[in-house]
Structures are given as C-alpha cells and as structure tokens.
Design goal:
Layout: E1 27-35, H1 58-81, E2 87-90, H2 94-97, H3 99-107, E3 111-114, H4 128-146, E4 152-153, H5 164-170, E5 175-176, E6 186-187, E7 196-197, H6 206-212, H7 217-234, E8 240-246, H8 248-251, H9 254-268, E9 274-276, H10 279-289, H11 291-300
Parallel strand pairs: 1-2, 1-8, 1-9, 2-3, 4-5, 5-7
Antiparallel strand pairs: 6-7
Helix pairs in contact: 7-9
Length: 315
C-alpha cells in the first residue's frame, strides 16, 4: 500500500464546471437509513472485535435489534409523511432475518445498496476471493428479494481492503459511500468501470452526533438545518448533494424523532430548489451528464496525478 492511494485528484471545489440537477434543481437530497444486522456471536476478526464488550454483548445486540423491530417503522412512517424515499444501506443478511422490512421498503420504491452481509463481519483481512464472494452474494441476494440490481456500496462497518474500490467498479457498481472528501459526486480512478464517490457525510451521521458527540436531539436538528442551508446557498453556483445517514436505533428513539421531523420540515420547505431522490438516481444522472466533463476538466487543467488513472478518460 502507498501513502496516497491515488483514488481521486485534487480538484478545487470553486472552479469546476457547473452541475445542474434534473428540473433545474440546485441541491440533490437523499436519506440513507442503515438497516443493519448485528450477529449475537459473530466470527472473530483479529483486527477488530465484533462488539465493544466481550461476546455476548447483550445490551449492544438488543439495542440495535430494537431499531429493526420498532425504530425502522417509525422512521419509515415519518419519511412517508414528507414524501421521501430511502436509499438503504443494507446488511444483506437481514433479508433472511427480517423479510417484512424488505417488503415494506420495496412497496415504497426505496433503493437498496450493499453494506456487506452483516455489520459484524469486517473486510479487514479478507483475501480477494472472500471479498468477491461478499460482493457477488450482495448482488444476487438483493436482486432475488427485491428485483433491484444494486448500484451502491458502503463497506461493512466502514472496513476495507486495498482492492475494495477496484472490485466494486469491476462489478459495475456506480457509487461508493466510503469516501468523505467532497460535497459533489467525484469520479474515482479505478482499474475498470465508472465508479463515483457519493457524498454521504460522517458529520451529520447520527452514529457520530448521538454516539460520539452525545448531541441533544434539538441540537442535532439545528445541525441538519445549518448543514442544509450552507449547501443550498453554495448550490446557486453549482449543484451540491446532501445525505443524512441514519440508524433507526438512534434517530427513532421517542425523545429524538420529533426533533428530526423539524429538520425534515425545514428541508421540505425548499422543495422548489431541491431534488428529493435516491443515491442511485444521483449517480445515474451524474454519470450520464457530468462524468466526461469532470474527468476532462481535471485533465485540461493539469490536475491529474500519476498512477493507474481513470478507466474511462476523456481528454
């Protein structure tokens, strides 16, 4: 491995060709409910324990199980109220454990993308055959259960190998949520395919705000509003993307949900300026209309760095 993986070039934010979303919208907005399954007694990974406490972590397991049994349904009803679809970061194994959740999401035309098989099985230490098996299982299992060909990837528990991005590009994934370097989609330099980095955001992820930072619900709502307002203001010059990554066991707690609704209400009040959509729709639009323009602009301005380069370069 190298000090710089050369996945993307430095491309100054302010000087790029203008992006416009469908219908002349300025900001593309999507919500990523992480619908995860955590094993009670996961296989041991020498690089990272499955649970913070020694197995079995009864408290951690049951808290997350509440999210699938109670919290998810609260969140889904709230998103229905505001006409918002989810792009589900899915632990694919959940299809076998809780098919009712999958059926409800399919009925609402929500998107599914892979978050690995279980969120307690990490990519660390996998060889190529093992990582391919996870990707192939994700594609096959989700398609069989939903009819969708998944187009996005978020590595399980944000764990990776040095080959992760090349592999998902090879399997014709359109985007990854594993990189946090930009507020617009950006082409990645992979050995094949056309893989985008999709803005996902750790900063407004409820695992960070509620877990790491211990924010109050109303403080979190204020953060979401300010985050949205800034991106919408900048979108006057060129289209931006805002994602809210969520976990039902956190955001859907009874004392938190109403504050989150206030943030959704604020965002919805700008309906004339925003495209409420899914990650796959954002990626599809960008790949069709802006991929060549982006790669070409980097090349013309002499910003491209050495390395394997893009699989599909436009001079």
């Amino acid at each position: 491995m190298h000090s710089d993986p050369n996945l993307y070039d430095y491309w100054p934010y302010r000087d790029r060709p203008k992006v416009v979303w469908p219908g002349g919208k300025k900001l593309a907005f999507w919500i990523a409910p992480n619908i995860e399954f955590y094993e009670y007694d996961p296989p041991v990974n020498p690089q990272r324990p499955g649970w913070p406490k020694p197995t079995p972590d009864v408290v951690g397991y049951s808290q997350r199980d509440w999210g699938n049994r109670v919290g998810h349904w609260r969140l889904m009803e709230l998103m229905d109220k505001y006409g918002m679809r989810g792009s589900i970061s899915l632990s694919v194994g959940l299809i076998d454990h809780h098919p009712e959740i999958i059926e409800a999401c399919v009925a609402r035309n929500w998107e599914f993308f892979s978050h690995g098989i279980y969120n307690t099985r990490y990519s660390y230490g996998m060889d190529e055959a093992q990582e391919r098996a996870v990707i192939e299982d994700s594609i096959r299992t989700v398609q069989a259960a939903t009819g969708q060909r998944i187009r996005g990837y978020l590595a399980p528990a944000l764990t990776h190998t040095e080959r992760t991005f090349d592999l998902i590009a090879e399997y014709d994934f359109w985007y990854t949520c594993d990189l946090f370097q930009d507020d617009q989609p950006q082409p990645l330099k992979t050995a094949s395919g056309k893989l985008l980095s999709m803005p996902y955001s750790l900063e407004v992820n409820d695992v960070i705000t509620y877990g790491a930072q211990a924010m109050s619900p109303w403080r979190y709502a204020d953060v979401l509003k300010r985050h949205f307002d800034q991106l919408l203001e900048e979108a006057e010059a060129s289209g931006t993307v805002m994602c809210i990554p969520l976990h039902a066991y956190l955001v859907s707690q009874p004392h938190r949900l109403r504050a989150f609704e206030e943030a959704l209400k604020h965002i919805s009040s700008h309906a004339d300026d925003i495209w409420i959509t899914t990650a796959a729709e954002i990626a599809g639009h960008y790949r069709e209309h802006y991929w060549d323009q982006a790669v070409g602009d980097v090349a013309r301005r002499g910003l491209a760095t050495g390395g394997k380069g893009f699989a599909n370069v436009v001079a």
